[in-house]
């Protein structure tokens, strides 16, 4: 090519680059489309996969660029405001994965990106207030005239109004939170000042300083505690319990109103401090873990997995290893192989806070190569980990559900531990299943994916038995330890023989006694938290329900109270609580419906279990593990440490106790009331019960001494219970699969739950019946539609719910049906918030 020609080519490129003037942006809004913006002349044009800030309605939103083009949209495009990244944040494989999720789960692409990227913390979307001219006038007028009335508010509110105006007087715009802390103004008050045009409101989106800090709440000593309300006392107790200081983000788990901390700060009882995020120090678990030489079964499993790492071939494998077979060591060895070959590896776990031992083993094996991503991270910490991973500083990623999106370079291996666990399904948009996304990601990256479990989901099991996945089995526990002997205790017989309904059977009490006397440890599962999970009025037969949900309220006792008539002077404890929306109320003296005094507390939860056990075994050192006792990330660690050291010799708790813990002193496991779950309206009920029984039984006999399990049941002939007791996964799978085949349930069909909802009952009912009629009149081949029916939880957080269960023979048919239904809903003017599409639904409530 001659010089003139190349000059021409260059000119053409320049012209072309000037013509690239629009970009499509996926925004985190519930609309299934991208939005087109103009690339301003001054701005560096963004690349596909970069974040940009754009105006959207009255807001400024962060979105991801999905396409750059020259097609002007029908309406004038607004310009992008800022380009946040110089280089694409998301590599092509993750862009492709996002597109797949969006289409498979029918979720807006922008919302998929929001789930994938933990970086929204880097962009602050703030609401700012500024003083208006009118406000200034009021301020000066009242300053001149002393305390004359300037509004119709109470004197106290007027003082606060004055403080707000005074604070803003210099003219700066201030954040709501700062303004409120400084002046004690409520949001209502600020809003009323806005209405009076004393203040102006503006929003801003600014990129944050990359130096991240963590905000700590620090308890100040030497203060006389003035009269405090229950929430304040609760918060102070939590701080004191944590040694006097705690990240503010962890305090949020107490579910108290935001104002509680603020008022404690104002009263000088607590101080807030910003500290540098020394995340690594904070998460580095104490102690180190043993590294074992693999036994022959582990060696075989490892070899089969390692053989394909780096081969560039997509290879899904199901590793079914009984509880205590040493799956973790196999994962670690495979991850090491990936690392040695120059690849990264991701390990997904259901909840990392529940298994700190796993984190310890990873640090021992991989040191600073490890990045941990879990739900207790605050946004800044999460973003920091994300950057380390993306920079290639951490090539071993361990985390919960969303870690499947970790931006590793050169992915070689993904392991999904406890792949059957329902926490892998996200219960909000995008409703993805991390196990399935892991398989898809491995496919896109041509890498190896291992799904591990003692109780694989029937979906994965079928994929393995039909040859879609490779199957590796480890049928024995390590070191020739036997699986525990499981006995069923028939509670119907127990009732006939003792003549009374008891929480614990005679056998369980005897065996617990004997276990404790031998100096061993016992675990008892009571899979409901709280004291009583039903409060019934004996006179009218009504159960006390949540105001917002069609859910029975759970009774929680105050801490330390020992009997039902122990009136608790502090209002902290004694309460009825909805486990779905968090609604709380005090315990009424009389039935709210019929005013009878005969309120009856039924159904024992873990709190009651603990109390009853303490009465039966006054010398036992009892610990409780449930959502009420395990809140922050350190609670679990502390509890497990007390178990390992033997400080606790009897543990009672909810299904949390069944999760992967490896406590060698436990020789007895008792299961109380786990079979109520068989009656839940979900085709997976039997599978869930089988998994729970197998997993909890698996906690027994993991050390030198063999274990024993006692399962109290009213359904001793049910196959899920019998076969769990016999450790016979294959027989269970066969029987359950037969049932699924007859009933056209997964894995023999694909299924979606379509929820129609509205705060107005008539509206929800009308919409669902209109959709129902349309379904009935429209022929969908290979599709079965159940419904409309009221959802098992017919009202949730004040919203009425109906649903359809849609089953199809083929994935494509299901997708087509759902898209058609959504299009129909648009015609029927059902707004997008009125519909929830849950593809591969796990929870059908
Ligand atoms: N080769 C080995 N020799 C001896 N002990 C081992 C070996 N491999 C692992 N272990 C130990 O066996 C115990 C069980 O291992 P691990 O927790 O990995 O089991 P698992 O298969 O994940 O069980 P679960 O499904 O119940 O979580 C651990 O205490 C572990 O340290
Ligand atoms: Zn509720």
Automatic annotation (TrEMBL):
GO-annotated biological processes: DNA recombination; DNA replication initiation; DNA replication, synthesis of primer; double-strand break repair
Record flagged with keyword Cell division: no
GO molecular-function term, one example from the UniProt record: DNA binding
Binding-site residues, Zn(2+) 1: 537, 540, 591, 594
Top enzyme class: isomerase
Role, per record: Initiates the restart of stalled replication forks, which reloads the replicative helicase on sites other than the origin of replication. Recognizes and binds to abandoned replication forks and remodels them to uncover a helicase loading site. Promotes assembly of the primosome at these replication forks.
Subunit (UniProt): Component of the replication restart primosome.
HAMAP family in the cross-refs: PriA
Protein name: Replication restart protein PriA
């Amino acid at each position: 090519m001659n010089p003139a020609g190349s000059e021409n080519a260059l000119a053409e490129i320049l012209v072309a680059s000037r013509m690239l003037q629009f970009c499509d942006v996926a925004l985190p809004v519930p609309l299934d489309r991208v939005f087109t913006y103009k690339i301003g002349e001054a701005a560096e044009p963004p690349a596909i996969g970069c974040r940009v800030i754009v105006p959207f309605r009255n807001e400024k939103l962060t979105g991801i660029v999905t396409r750059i083009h020259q097609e002007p949209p029908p309406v004038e495009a607004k310009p992008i405001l800022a380009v946040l990244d110089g280089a694409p944040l998301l590599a092509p494989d993750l862009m492709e994965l996002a597109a797949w999720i969006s289409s498979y789960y029918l979720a807006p692409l922008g919302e998929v990106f929001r789930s994938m990227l933990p970086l929204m913390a880097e962009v602050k979307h703030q609401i700012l207030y500024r003083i208006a001219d009118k406000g200034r006038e009021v301020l000066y007028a009242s300053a001149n005239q002393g305390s004359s009335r300037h509004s119709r508010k109470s004197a106290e509110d007027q003082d606060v109004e004055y403080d707000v105006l005074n604070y803003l007087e210099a003219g700066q715009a201030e954040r709501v939170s700062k303004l409120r802390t400084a002046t004690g103004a409520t949001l209502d008050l600020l809003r009323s000042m806005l209405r009076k045009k004393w203040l102006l409101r503006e929003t801003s989106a600014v990129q944050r300083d990359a130096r991240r800090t963590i905000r700590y709440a620090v308890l100040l000593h030497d203060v006389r505690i003035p009269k405090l309300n229950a929430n304040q006392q609760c918060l102070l107790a939590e701080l004191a319990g944590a040694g006097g200081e705690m990240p503010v983000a962890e305090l949020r788990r107490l579910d108290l109103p935001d104002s509680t901390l603020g008022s404690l700060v104002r009263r000088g009882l607590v101080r807030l401090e910003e500290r540098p995020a020394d995340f690594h120090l904070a998460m580095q678990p104490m102690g180190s873990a043993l590294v074992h030489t693999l036994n022959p079964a582990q060696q075989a499993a490892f070899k089969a997995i390692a053989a394909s790492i780096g081969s560039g071939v997509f290879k899904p494998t199901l590793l079914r290893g009984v509880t205590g077979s040493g799956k973790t060591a196999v994962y670690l060895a495979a991850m090491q192989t990936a690392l040695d070959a120059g690849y990264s590896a991701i390990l997904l776990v259901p909840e990392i806070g529940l298994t700190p031992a796993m984190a310890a083993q990873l640090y021992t094996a991989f040191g600073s190569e490890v990045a941990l991503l879990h739900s207790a991270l605050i946004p800044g910490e999460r973003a920091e980990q994300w950057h380390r991973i993306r920079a290639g500083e951490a090539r071993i990623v361990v985390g919960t559900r969303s870690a499947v999106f970790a931006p590793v370079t050169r992915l070689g291996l993904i392991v999904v531990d406890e792949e059957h666990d329902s926490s892998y399904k996200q219960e909000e948009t995008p409703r993805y299943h991390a196990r399935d996304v892991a398989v898809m990601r491995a496919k896109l990256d041509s890498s190896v994916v291992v799904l591990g479990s003692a109780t694989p989901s029937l979906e994965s099991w079928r994929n393995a038995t039909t040859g879609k996945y490779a199957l590796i089995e480890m049928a024995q526990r390590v070191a020739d330890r036997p699986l525990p002997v499981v006995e069923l205790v028939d509670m119907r017989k127990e009732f006939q023989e003792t003549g009374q309904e008891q929480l614990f059977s005679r056998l369980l009490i005897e065996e617990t006694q004997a276990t404790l006397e031998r100096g061993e440890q016992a675990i008892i599962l009571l899979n409901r938290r709280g004291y009583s999970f039903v409060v019934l009025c004996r006179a009218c037969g009504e159960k006390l329900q949540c105001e917002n949900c069609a859910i029975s309220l759970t009774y929680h006792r105050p801490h330390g109270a020992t009997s039902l008539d122990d009136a608790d002077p502090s209002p902290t404890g004694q309460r009825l609580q909805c486990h779905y929306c968090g609604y709380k109320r005090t315990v009424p003296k009389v039935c709210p419906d019929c005013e009878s005094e005969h309120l009856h507390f039924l159904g024992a939860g873990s709190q009651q279990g603990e109390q009853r056990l303490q009465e039966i075994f006054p010398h036992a050192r009892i610990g409780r593990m449930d959502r009420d006792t395990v809140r922050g990330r350190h609670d679990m660690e502390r509890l497990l440490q007390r178990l390992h050291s033997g400080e606790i010799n009897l543990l009672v708790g909810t299904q949390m106790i069944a999760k992967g813990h490896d406590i060698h002193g436990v020789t007895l496991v008792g299961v109380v009331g786990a079979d109520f779950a068989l009656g839940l309206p979900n085709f997976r009920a039997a599978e869930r019960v089988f998994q729970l029984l197998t997993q909890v039984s698996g906690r027994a006999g993991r050390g030198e001494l063999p274990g024993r399990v006692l399962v109290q049941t009213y359904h001793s002939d049910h196959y899920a219970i019998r076969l769990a007791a016999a450790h016979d996964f294959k027989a269970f799978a066969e029987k359950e699969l037969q049932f699924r085949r007859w009933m056209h349930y997964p894995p023999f069909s694909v299924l979606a739950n379509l929820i129609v909802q509205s705060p107005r009952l008539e509206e929800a009912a009308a919409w669902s019946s209109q959709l129902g009629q349309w379904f009935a009149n429209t022929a969908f081949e290979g599709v079965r539609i159940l419904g409309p029916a009221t959802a098992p939880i017919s009202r949730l957080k004040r919203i009425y719910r109906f649903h359809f269960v849609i089953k199809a023979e083929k994935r494509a048919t299901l997708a087509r049906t759902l898209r058609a239904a959504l299009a129909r809903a648009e015609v029927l003017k059902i707004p997008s918030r009125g519909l929830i599409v849950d593809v591969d639904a796990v929870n059908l409530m």
